[in-house]
Amino acid sequence: MIKYLPPRVFMLVVLISMFSVLMLAACAGPQGSQGSGGDQGPQGSTGKQGIRGIPGPQGPIGGSGAQGLPGPQGIEGSRGAQGLSGSQGAQGLEGDRGAQGVQGLPGQSGSDGASGIRGATGSQGSVGERGIQGLEGPTGSTGSRGAQGESGGKTTIMAGWLSSDGFVTGVVPSGRAELTVIGAGFGSNESVTIVVTGQILGSVKANSNGILSAAFEVYLRSGVQAVRAVGSEGSSAVGPLLVK
Question: What is the pTM of this model?
Fold first, then answer.
């Protein structure tokens, strides 16, 4: 059982203690010199780890680093297994029948048969009377037309330019222009091809009198050119043309 002191007794004890302290302080002599330091004591044990602090703000993003060198080429992979064969497709439609082939050459003639046995010569007969002259036969049909004879030098060809002042023979401006061709001495209704220095301009048909006239759009370079007319029945003519 704990006993407590009365308040008066407690206060008296406190006053006596304070008085004793004051007396000891008054009776104390002057302070002595500081003594030499004692030996260092042993190191104390490590304290417990403190609480983790709050994380600081995120720093700025650093600049991009230099691009690294390309890595070495990888090892080639193994070949894959062969795939399964596909199913056979449906049969296509039958194609159109081809054109008939060219007729073959006629076969070789057969060899002649063996000659028969010659019969005996008969006796000569008597000369008969002259017969009555027969009637005149009908007139034969007209023969086919003969081939075209060689040109007698009368086939001519001229080329020129139809300007505002009229037709200019043998001259045409360079570049793109309309070339007029006039010819005579060709066959009746003969087809004639017009050529200028290897360039075929086209074909024109002569009339029944062998005269032709045609105009062609051309593009010619400067210089002297040759205009040639070649007919389908062998006619031909050449004329000069100055392109300037």
Answer: 0.38
